[in-house]
From TrEMBL, chains A, B, C, D:
Gene3D superfamilies: Dihydrodipicolinate Reductase, domain 2 (3.30.360.10), NAD(P)-binding Rossmann-like Domain (3.40.50.720). This is Gfo/Idh/MocA family oxidoreductase. Coiled coil: none annotated. InterPro entries: Gfo/Idh/MocA-like_OxRdtase_N, Gfo/Idh/MocA_oxidoreduct, GFO_IDH_MocA-like_dom, NAD(P)-bd_dom_sf. The lineage of its organism: Bacteria, Pseudomonadati, Bacteroidota, Flavobacteriia, Flavobacteriales.
Length: 381, 381, 381, 381
């Protein structure tokens, strides 16, 4: 088995999500970080490389340079794929260029700055023949996979109600004015796009609901708000949902929900049973039934389906967390690349979020903004 | 101190809510049940009286008979007030007649069958000079009162987001067709009114949100549904909320949320802190803060405000439940009557839900139905 | 159905446990409080009676007076039974006198001040032909009964491990020196007996473990401590347990466990499954299994045995608390008296704790003190 | 920064703890696995190396071979340290040999097969000048470090009561007879030593209690049992604890606690406050106080001390799990080696468990077995 070589765009030392991607990529021992355009400032990029134990010659001052230079290296030396961990406005350009130069891509969400970019990127991916993964990392949790499997097998019967929430409080005050970089770009439409919290966390909620249930949102009525003084992008929102199968539900999300840390949660109700799951306590899946006591499923615990327990790294009772869920996306992506590298064809249903999920997320953002601008009129995704 | 004498309309042996009212009325030793029109069938009424240890002569075959006969008894013998525990369509007639014959009234929610009745009843109450209480029992929980006090004192800052839910699963199947009486009248518009789950539990959610925050819902966009085959009244709904102070939120309620028992819950987010509370675990109030660790308040525990701890019957750590919360409404009602009986004037802000809350609940039902009929158009309450 | 008439010894206005007994006795509408020796100070007793709506003539200045006077009243007027809610040293005298004058007795725990008294009281009860109940109230919780039923039916297999705890923190500081009456008598061996926390809460833990499992503690090795400065009675203890069937376990109890409110809990492990229950969250029973997911049982919820659901007053999801559990003891006691009053014989296995349980509790206290005095040597109960 | 090179003893593909060590070592990007004696069967060792992406020439058939061959390699190529992940009886020999050949060592717990080995190993470590870390991984959780910091700063006042538990159920049936390798060696005294569950999990509980409180157990009274038919080593135990400062407590541990997964937990009570923590929900630390509401601390959340938050990899609300806690031991070990490699002296109080902790764990096992053999007589550690 040959380990895969990763090049990174963004993620200089001190960044939040870059470090998450690196740790997630390394947990399972399948991937080595070999190069990076960690910053658009070459000095900073080199400093980051040094701190990460990467030779200076493979620290680049721009993603363009990285892609061009790496492409020149011998096949067994050059990077296999690019990990894009920059703010939203720097997703499309490096993704497009990497794919066009023959590199696979794994990219943070939301997919792009605009819906147009997203649609174009989907075409580029399809014509490139390369693999593209989107890190909707919450789908990597074993209990999310257990819920998905239970619903797919019909354990819950026909799904009728879906409530999803993503509540954070870190923008409850104007932290973007205090020099907090994570906040600064997120409230800037030039870097975030037309959605604020919508893009940052609403898309996770949308993706989670559709991933777990296998049912798409058909239309929505959204009431999104910028509570923070001077903010132009939403930092809070409430949405009525109607699903393609007739199910109905709500989404509520916020980055001004004071005191909340990272409270992504979902409840799905079917005719025979229901499930409930919260990201902050990810190793418990609550199931309720018409005629049986409430059950608590755990990763690898009694009653786990293989669809979930196959993703568990350690015995039941040994909690796995956010990084492991994230790592599961990287592992599945890596296995897909190994499969392809060994001469097999690409999977038709790969085991990670793809550019399709990314386009859907962008459509969700656009539909929600449009609906909200029309005073919560029903709007198709 | 003289104990108060209660006459009951409805609540024959075997009824759910009648028994709840009786137990709630007796916990604090302030009230004695002395008579009842427990059933419109006189024989059944007498059988109920016998089982309850009430003399046969004070078991009546109709509320009209009870009111007329009791009015003839000497003052120190006749009932002081009427408790109405019948289905919705039998709220207005006995309430009107009792008030007009000089009896105080305590009545189950929602207030009446129709909004017109509600408005008329408010007038009757006001002109009667009698006390009228509505058993929105969930406001009786100490932790609900703690949350209300914290918000009133400004501990949470300016309220910006309010999410409330009331989830039950007992109508997930067509139990109304199995002879289940509780279900049968609730799905019948002649007995329930224009709201199904809306009236039965949605009004509790509305009342709880407004009671805890002291902020009224200004307008709503509702999407209510009758999922159960053949049902004409809603058994599920999702509502966007806008509050008078600019706060926004969601309400989701259901009686087809399979496996849920009685999951009433609320989360309120302010600029400085937030609270979260669930009825099934009523002795915990979760508080989150901008800059302090999460706290868990308990009835009578450290940090309780007098506004809450005054309602606690037993030391911290000894859980009180649904009946105690319900009893708190009865106790406050009884104390009001004792105050009046001792010659004092009635309270201007009585410590229990009143006919005003009942009218508001009816307006909520009507606004939600209207909004939903108009495809979730924003509708003022 | 005739309601039963209760006379109370102790429990003047302001007492903790007297008020609990009164509320517990009244919830189910089977019992009326008709008289009391609420205080050994006659004036205070009268004041209490007045506050409770009891005629002055039936407020007595001593239990002796109450028993003698009530015995003279006509049968349909005099009290049916005596409720003893005084500190431990005033359990035996009124119990003995009441029984000998033909009154049934319900008494708070622990049974008596000394083991000798306990053994003598058992003889008196047996020869009196009267009913004696001991308020080990925690056995009244539906989920305790569910656990007991599951174990009795063999659902858990052979029991091998039993851990029980009762943790409070209210004596973490020297509150007995601040005029707190509840604390003052509990730390006084003349009023409490040889056990401090041992008698006050350790006996509850012992009773709960034996009630739930149906298995008796055979021997114990106890290490009890008086942490509070100047205290002569234990306020904390840790005990190794060996049960008659070969099971082993631990008990830990404390009244100096800072911040704990009333944390009684138990875990029982068998060869096929296990259960876990906590008094502060009494409406959940956790069950774990060899080969099935963890389950959560609720009162009246799916999977409840009749042995538990028969004790539930309201539908699943409507929490019952401490008072309801306590009331269940009173209700069972009342039904036993009604059965006897109607001419039936007394139950051989009555549905409430009896003098036998009380003697056992006293033996537990004495064994634990003896073991601890011998540096935790194994001591038979 | 140069990454460190790790050689592994044990941990062939399919092993539980070997894989854990590898993942833990790789999360933070400081360590590369470069060689291994993954099995005493050379073919299996080579197969494991291949699966792990390690060149065949660095797959060894014995730890002796690995140590001798690696020692011959150039300094910048050979392994820096040995990770020992074998059953207990293969801890001492490779540790001794590695240290004597100039390699640092990180080793799984318990330290050795016998106490004599442990004492000898401590001498070898001390005279070697090399670094030795023991993977008591549970000390790596941020909330464990928060609890430790709170106690060290005196937030809880004087510690008076310490209860610790470690409950598993995986040996509730005779899985060792089904070919389960993990079980087979753990029940074999030749491979496990004189303690069964005592060594496997009891030592974790002992270490956790002493690490969090900074207080040593002085003496204990142990009642350990082999419930499993035919087992010679304990699979369950209950212990009374007395600490050097006068605190008292209990330990209960089991591998036959049916349905328990990995329930390590601790509660510590001081004069001013108390804490409670459970490994299965590791991102919550419960704190209770004399006069403030209960608090819940989270990693990196409000109120975290730097002593805890310095160990958090991702923002509050993003759960970290078992692997991250384990990785923290590896990271601290790696930083110590980097510090030494850069010419600094070794830390006098290194930030990871050392051989001293290992010797203490062995003394704990021996004291507990001795006490239990003497019918739970108090025995000094």
């Amino acid at each position: 088995m040959t380990r895969l070589k990763m090049g990174m765009v963004g993620g200089g030392i001190g960044s939040f999500i870059g470090d998450v991607h690196r740790k997630a990529a390394s947990i399972d021992g399948l991937i080595d970080l070999v190069c990076g355009a960690f910053s658009s400032n070459e000095e900073k990029s080199i400093a980051s490389a040094e701190a990460l134990g990467i030779p200076q010659k493979r620290a680049y001052g721009s993603f363009e340079q990285m892609i061009l230079e790496e492409a020149k290296l011998p096949e067994d030396e050059r990077m296999d794929f690019v990990a894009i961990v920059t703010p939203n406005h720097v997703h499309f350009p490096p993704a497009k260029m990497a794919l066009e130069h023959g590199f696979h891509v794994i990219c943070d969400k939301p997919l792009t700055l605009t819906l147009d970019e997203a649609i174009e990127l989907e075409k580029i991916v399809n014509s490139s023949g390369k693999v593209f993964a989107l890190t909707h990392n919450y789908t990597g949790y074993p209990m999310v996979k257990q819920a998905r499997a239970m619903i797919a097998k019909g354990d819950l019967g026909v799904i009728r109600k879906i409530n999803v929430q993503y509540l954070q409080g870190w923008l409850a005050t104007a932290v973007e004015k205090t020099g907090q970089k994570q906040a600064a770009w997120r409230v800037d439409p030039k870097k975030s796009g037309i959605g604020g919290a919508l893009g940052d966390i609403g898309t996770h909620a949308e993706n989670l609901a559709e991933y777990i249930t296998g049912i798409q949102i058909e239309e929505l009525a959204a009431d999104v708000t910028a509570f923070g003084e001077g903010r132009v992008l939403d930092d809070d929102g409430n949405i009525l949902l109607r699903f393609e199968n007739g199910a109905k539900g709500t989404m509520t999300f916020s980055q001004i929900a004071t005191g909340e840390e990272n409270n992504l949660g979902i409840a799905v109700y079917g005719t025979k049973g229901s499930i409930e799951w919260y990201q902050e306590n990810p190793n418990e899946l609550i199931a309720r039934w018409l005629d049986k006591p409430k059950q608590i499923f755990t990763p690898g615990g009694n009653g786990s389906y293989p669809e979930a327990s196959d993703y568990v790294r350690i015995p039941a009772g040994h909690p796995e967390g956010y990084l492991e869920g994230f790592a599961t996306i990287y592992r599945s992506f890596a296995k897909e690349l190994q499969q392809i590298n060994s001469g097999d064809t690409a999977s038709t249903l790969p085991d990670f979020p793809t550019v399709k999920d990314g386009v859907r997320g962008m459509k969700f953002i656009y539909a929600a903004v449009e609906s909200s601008n029309n005073n919560a009129t029903w709007t198709k995704i």
